[in-house]
Amino acid sequence: MGLNDINSRVxxxxxxxxxETGSVTLIAVSKVQPAERVTAVLDQGHQVFGENYVQExxxxxxxxxxxxxxxxxxxxxxxxxxxxxxxxxxxxAIHSLDRISLARxxxxxxxxxxxxxxxxxxxxxxxxxxxxxxxxxxxPGFIKSCQELGLRPHGLxxxxxxxxxxxxxxxxxxxxxxxxxxxxxxxxxxxxxxxxIAEGATHIRVxxxxxxxxxxx
Length: 217
Ligand SMILES: *Cc1c(COP(=O)(O)O)cnc(C)c1O
Fold this sequence. Notes:
By secondary structure, the protein is an alpha/beta fold. Helices cover 42% and strands 15% of the residues.
């Protein structure tokens, strides 16, 4: 547990997979965590964080960015269309591009604000009806629509079904990224980031293993 431990495990998993040291970006998922846990990790020098809720992120990151100017903050949670503009203002990357209406909004705000957040398309690898994300079959068409809107997606993101082994989902995501020429792979959380690294993850999203359990109280 803790940042140092997770960093060591990430380095070991990179070596085990024959991958270059530092090729995996550790996103420390700070949603819902008390401020002192997050500032402790900021003080340790970690610079990449993930948030799920626009409003929560808006309440804390503008101030922390002043104190820690080199941080980047990634949006990893579902994004409502009416929060798209704020998200484009706040975040360096968005991992939850999951529908065409959101792509249209993002394209407009990115253009107006003159910024270029890194974009990941969320793929519903388990074909789960209740889960957000583009279905594997629909991905090539979705990417084409994004490109027509002027967006340049950097990669793919998935959240495997909770009750299943993640590895087949990670493999599917990697194959889809290769087929569609996308370099980024956002996959793996506290419980399975090492297997995600073995399957080619470029970005892992780890919360509770760094900060401790979340208390939604
Ligand atoms: C909360 C969350 C995480 C981090 O989960 P942990 O199990 O605490 O590591 C990763 N990805 C997404 C999309 C999340 O919502």
